[in-house]
Amino acid sequence: MNAMASLxxxxxxxAFIAFLIPRYGRHIGILSAxxxxxxxxxxxxxxxxxxxxxxxxxxxxxxxxxxxxxxxxTALLLCLTTTVGLGVSLYxxxxxxxxxxxxxxKKHALSGWWPLWLLLWAALNALFLAADVFNxxxxxxxxxLAAVGLVALEAQAVVAATRYLLVGLLGSMLYLLGVGLLYAxxxxxxxxxxxxxxxxxxxxxxxxxLMSGGLLLKAALFPLxxxxxxxxxxxxxxxxxxxxxxxxxxxxxxxxxxxxxxxEPLAPALxxxxxxxxxxxxxxxxSLQALMAPRLKLVVAYSTVAxxxxxxxWFPLADSPTGGAIAWYGVVWLALSHGLAKAGLFxxxxxxxxxxxxxxxxxxxxxxxxxxxxxxxxxxxxxxxMGLPPSGGFVGKWLLLNAAFVSxxxxxxxxxxVGGVMAAAYSFRVLLHAFRNKESxxxxxxxxxxxxxxALALAVGxxxxxxxxxxxxxxxxxxxxxxxxxLSEAP
Amino acid sequence: MSQYLWYALVGxxxxxxxxxGLILHRHLLRxxxxxxxxxxxxxxxxxxxxxxxxxxxxxxxxxxxxxGLVVSVSATALGLVLIExxxxxxxxxxxxxxxx
Lengths: 491, 100
Prior knowledge:
Oligomer: heterodimer
CATH architecture of chain B: Orthogonal Bundle
Number of strands of chain B: 0
Number of strands of chain A: 2
Helix content of chain B: over 70%
Order of helices and strands of chain A: HHEEHHHHHHHHHHHHHHHHHH
Number of domains of chain B: 1
Distance between the termini of chain B: 51 Å
Radius of gyration of chain A: 21 Å
Distance between the termini of chain A: 23 Å
CATH topology of chain B: Helix Hairpins
Number of helices of chain B: 3
Structural class of chain A: mainly alpha
Largest interface: A-B, 35 and 37 residues
Largest sheet of chain A: 2 strands, antiparallel
Helix content of chain A: over 70%
Order of helices and strands of chain B: HHH
Strand content of chain A: under 5%
Structural class of chain B: mainly alpha
Number of helices of chain A: 20
């Protein structure tokens, strides 16, 4: 079977069956995850030998048909999604499983974790594979609706979920209006077709502003991040992990694709500098809030706000003839390693919450005694988020730092260094409390071993990304240089 | 003024009214309705696009509107369920300002 189509169909089919037969949800979930793993590996293998692929679904060509496109960037993000997805699925076996405590949790499992999670997975895969801007809209909406449903599984998170929905819909509307303008101007929604027709004219600028604005809202770039911390901090642990590691990245990926493809001839240097400035503000503001947050999950959520900021430092550096390529590798590395590290960190935070019934940072004493594996996962994830060598986070930051110096924009290097120090500060604040011993107090519940080990596995992945970077780098170079769509592939 | 432009302008007007409503109102039902007004505006622009230069309507924007309508109905349904839950938990269909 075609690997590209099955990456969308498998989770979609799984979601459907899991919805119909909730009793076997966990079996269907794990089976789907394994099949997706197989499909991802075979697709990555295929494009590393044959180069980028394009497929018209059902044989219908653009503009009526839906086209799927995969190159090195897509393949790497699919690999990230599959790795995090597999880890989270295994974690969910324990979290929503037989040994889980409380009736509430079992009700969650029945009422929707598996179908919604598989639907979200299908939306993510479809988004990464989308080759036209309208298909991106549909997948963004699907992603948003599934994500809101998952957040709302936690009764306390209903308010956060509602705000998340309103913000997400506003972002989609802005984006859709931009798509309409582009179609009016150029008569196509295909990304490579748009890229070859794009002219610098007022209506195209408006479309670019609308679509970028909508996506920035979904990617939670400062000051549009206000909805993220409550949603990510209050959702169930596996949901938080997926939202922070993958869903926010999806909006960033869409932005990256658009700015590298259709909007490339339009993108003014000033807009790049402005987005970079907002990214810098996100790093400082997010880290400050993380430093002061009272709860562990809130610390992790604000850390996501800050880490998202790093990704946007690519925009001002991309234009530089010397630093552009380095910045490109840096930002992809940072996105991948943050995905793994943040998923590991949120899962570990879920274990701590599970074991002690709360996650107040100042009362974390004893975690080191009772949950050594979880604490190790927290430590490794934090090392990658701070950017300590040899983690993936270090490689990404190092490349961005190089790009800043090479392109003569040293001020971004200052932001990177300050951000690293602040990340170390909020990480050590958590670790210091967690390493303290506590006299003879047993935790409420010890989490299922699979919950501890899946968190650790993802954290180890973030470190490994720094050590074993040769193969992913090779994959990233498949297709056109620096993620620009291969125009020759257009029909 | 051509009919196409007229419809597109009205669509833009609806979009702006909806945006204003979403920002100004605090009652969640009104916000949901405002989002619906916004999407109606967008769909109207798409329908206008389909008729922009010939007697034969262009099917592509119309197909997009159909897709958009399905998305909009699902989103509204999810929104209404969530609003009801907020109402039950907090006694009022308004988002508390700070819930972090």
